[in-house]
Design a protein that fits this description.
- The complex is a heterodimer.
- Chain A has helices at 2-9, 50-58, 72-87, 102-113, 127-133, 135-139, 168-183, 199-215, 233-243, 255-267, 282-289, 302-317, 338-346, 352-358; strands at residues 41-42, 62-67, 91-97, 119-122, 143-147, 162-166, 187-194, 219-227, 249-252, 274-278, 294-300, 325-328, 330-333.
- A seven-stranded parallel beta sheet of chain A has the order 1-12-6-5-4-2-3, sandwiched between helices. Chain A has a six-stranded mixed beta sheet with strand order 8-7-9-10-11-13, sandwiched between helices.
- Chain A is built from 14 helices and 13 strands.
- Chain A starts with a helix and ends with a helix.
- Chain A has two domains: 12-167 and 301-329, Response regulator (Rossmann fold); 168-300 and 333-358, Response regulator (Rossmann fold, 3-Layer(aba) Sandwich), CATH 3.40.50.
- Chain A is of the alpha/beta class.
- In chain A, helix 3 (72-87) crosses helix 12 and helix 9 (233-243) packs across helix 10.
- Chain B is globular.
- Chain B has helices at residues 2-8, 10-29, 38-63, 71-88, 91-114, 120-138, 149-157, 165-183, 185-195, 197-202, 207-233, 244-254, 266-285, 290-309; strands at residues 144-145, 159-160, 163-164, 235-236.
- Chain B has a two-stranded antiparallel ribbon.
- Classes of the chains: A alpha/beta, B mainly alpha.
- Chain A binds chain B through residues 4-5, 8-9, 12, 67, 70, 92-97, 99-104, 106-108, 110-112, 114-116, 126-129, 131-133, 152, 196-197, and chain B through 33-35, 37, 39-40, 43, 46-47, 50, 140-145, 229, 232-235, 237-240, 242-243, 277, 280-281, 284-285, 287-291, 293.
Chain lengths: 359, 314
């Protein structure tokens, strides 16, 4: 049953297919394929000449950012996009948060269209509903740059400029590699995944599982648990630990529930079981730096992703053919590189508590 | 003029004045941002149609002295049931199936509340969770597209004489709801039951049947709201309606319906619903960051509540 949900959700967008299998070389974009099997273009390959920037500036364009939620990741993407837009002389006229609600997203599109933005950056929440939701924008000739998901039936170059995504497969794979490194490539592992139809987490969770199963024969996933509400992570981890007390490692789908898992381990006086999770968070990083349960955190270059979205929008505005599928790389943060990781991922200094604990 | 209104029926009229004041504020502040365009104003009504339909039914439920927390989950179930049915069968069957799901759930809620005599808060809290789980498992978390053009037109994007169908649904829900609430024997019995169930029973009102009926109306309207979402989005998804419950209750209360039962207002609920939609719309058009939108929205709702609902007897 679970397998069925997972395998189905893996093709949720019905478009972007992530092909696994190539060895990790750091050039992560090689492993990720676009909707029609396009090769991924690394985010830093998007370039606008001075003449092109000047041409965009002349247009006095405007942009709307239609996000799916509010989070550290969204903030970093927004920061990257805002900086690039200000370089291009594009004004941001509206920002929205759909709270993961496809109906709210449709309302958001309708609302911002009153301001006639030249560009929309958005994460379409649902392949079916979003196809309908973004239709007014497409019809009005607004340039769409999409984050991670593609509305069903949308054609690149006609309906949207480009898809920009973080390297979801690499994030999950690097989490598996990091856990393997921490455990000497053997041991019993629990897999706590996001039990919802949500492309981003589904991709990352499955990449972790696949990597463990394929690349690490001496590591076994002995326990799995799905979460929908991060607030319940502690209960779930407690139950897992009761059932399987000799766990060597736990994968947690993202940082917020990882805090709950950490709390469960601490309550049990467990200092042995290692945690890997995704997305930088201060309490999780602090535990890692202090030599606690957290072995590594993988993240994406979210700021760069936002910058790339804005640059791709620039391509659309001057009619320059954009690469169909752009990928911002993933990174692994350990105690050794955590300060740099904060810069690379979120484009700001690591929290004071983390840098202080490093000293 | 204001004080005269307040002296007569405070909660009844101040919300309208407040609504107009906020509308005027947006109209001035956003005069260059397209707020006052017909398209944008129609958008606000269309975006709130589902909430309005549920708010009308919630006026009945709160007035009879009960509450229905399960409406958000019913939205998702009805939309999914309709969408799945329309894969195989013509659209009228999809609509019937979706509404039937709502009626059935309403009967279960209502029977447990009216005849088994369980508190509606707990009954519907339980069914809310139960139904959310059913909605998730119904299609294995998959979105279901609706490709029937007639359905999508009727429940979503068509227009009659230039008026979008969703606007007509809002008008119909409020018109029928207001008439039933104010002009029929059923409406009078709802008031009587909520005001004093013992007295109502002594006066010959079949109190249990009225309570059951209100919960069936609530669930059926939530199912209709689900169909309207499905038509608007050309598809259904298990997350539909998830966040609507508090918006609906807030809209109804701001509109002057008493949380403790016995009194309510259908037009007030419409105004409450439009107020919520207008705030979403206007604050986005102001170009505020998402956090600032939430803060400002909170302040405005507080102000509206302070104006309309201050309890002078406390």
């Amino acid at each position: 049953m679970l397998e069925r949900i997972i395998s189905k959700t893996a093709v949720f967008a019905g478009t972007i297919a992530f092909a696994a299998g190539l060895p990790l070389t750091g050039a992560s974009a090689q492993e990720t394929k676009g909707p029609g099997g396009e090769t991924a273009t690394p985010a830093n390959a998007l370039m606008l000449s001075d003449a092109e920037v000047a041409k965009i500036k002349e247009g006095k364009y405007s942009a709307a950012l239609l996000w799916h939620t509010s989070s550290d990741f969204v903030n970093a993407v927004t920061a990257g996009a805002s900086d690039e837009f200000s370089r291009l002389g594009v004004t941001i006229v509206a920002t929205t948060d759909a709270g993961f609600d496809a109906a709210k997203q449709k309302s958001d599109v309708e609302t911002v269209m009153a301001k006639k933005p030249s560009v929309i950056l958005a994460l379409p929440l649902d392949p079916v509903a979003s196809a309908e939701a973004f239709r007014p924008a497409v019809a009005a000739g607004t340039k769409l740059v999409l984050l991670s998901n593609v509305p069903k039936g949308y054609v690149q170059g006609k309906d949207y400029v480009a898809i920009v995504t973080d390297d979801l497969f690499q994030m999950g794979k690097q989490a598996a590699d990091a856990l393997a490194a921490a455990l000497g490539k053997k041991g019993k592992v629990a897999w706590i995944f996001h039990d919802a139809q949500y492309y981003v987490t589904n991709q990352r969770d499955n990449a972790f599982k696949t990597t463990i199963e394929k690349d690490y024969p001496d590591m076994k996933i002995v326990a799995t648990a799905g979460i929908t509400d991060p607030a319940r992570a502690q209960d779930i981890a407690q139950a897992l630990l009761t059932k399987t007390p000799d766990l060597d490692g736990i994968y947690v789908t993202w940082a917020e529930p990882a805090e709950g898992v950490l709390a469960a381990l601490r309550a049990a006086g467990n200092t042995k079981t290692k945690i890997v999770t995704l997305d930088l968070s201060e309490p999780v990083a602090l535990d890692m730096v202090k030599g606690g349960n957290v072995a590594a955190i993988t993240a994406d270059k979210a700021y760069e992703l936002g910058r790339a979205m804005a640059t791709a929008a620039g391509y659309g505005l001057i009619g320059k053919a954009a690469p169909a599928f752009v990928v911002a790389p993933a990174l692994t943060a350990t105690k050794a590189n955590v300060a740099q990781a904060w810069q690379d991922s979120l484009h700001r200094d690591a929290p004071k508590s983390v840098t202080a604990a490093l000293k | 003029m204001l004080s005269a209104l307040r002296a007569t029926e405070p909660a009844k009229y101040v919300i309208y004045v407040g609504f107009l004041a906020i509308f005027a504020l947006f109209a001035v502040a956003l005069r260059d941002s397209g707020f006052l365009t017909t398209a944008n104003l129609l958008n606000i009504i269309q975006q709130t149609t589902s909430v309005t339909v549920m708010a009308v039914a919630t006026v009945f439920v709160l007035t009879v002295g009960e509450i229905d927390l399960s409406i958000g989950s019913v939205v998702a179930i009805a939309a999914l049931v309709a969408a799945v049915t329309m894969r195989e069968f013509p659209w009228p069957l999809g609509v019937l199936a979706g509404l039937a799901a709502g009626v059935a759930i309403g009967f279960v809620n209502g029977a447990l509340v009216a005849y088994v005599r369980l508190p509606s808060f707990l009954v519907t809290l339980a069914t809310m969770g139960l139904l959310a789980g059913v909605a998730r498992s119904l299609t294995n978390l998959q979105s279901v597209p609706v490709e029937d053009d007639v359905f999508n037109a009727l429940f979503g994007s068509a227009a009659l004489l230039g008026i979008p169908s969703l606007v007509l649904w809002s008008v119909a829900a409020v018109g029928i709801g207001h008439f039933v609430f104010r002009e029929t024997r059923f409406g009078a019995h709802v008031h009587a039951t909520g005001d004093n169930a013992g007295a109502a029973r002594a006066g010959g009102v079949k109190v249990e049947r009225i309570r059951l009926a209100c919960l069936v109306v609530s669930s059926t309207c939530a199912a209709l709201a689900g169909l309207l979402y499905a038509g608007r989005l050309h598809g259904a998804r298990y997350t539909l309606g998830e966040t609507d419950l508090l918006t609906v209750i807030a809209a109804v209360i701001v509109g002057g319906t008493r949380l403790s039962g016995g009194a309510g207002s259908v037009p007030g609920a419409l105004i409450g619903s439009l107020l919520m939609g207008m705030l979403n719309n206007g604050l986005i058009l102001m170009g505020l960051s998402v956090s600032d939108q939430m803060i400002v929205r909170g302040f405005i709702i507080l102000a509206a509540v302070a104006l309309t609902l201050r309890d002078r007897t406390r």
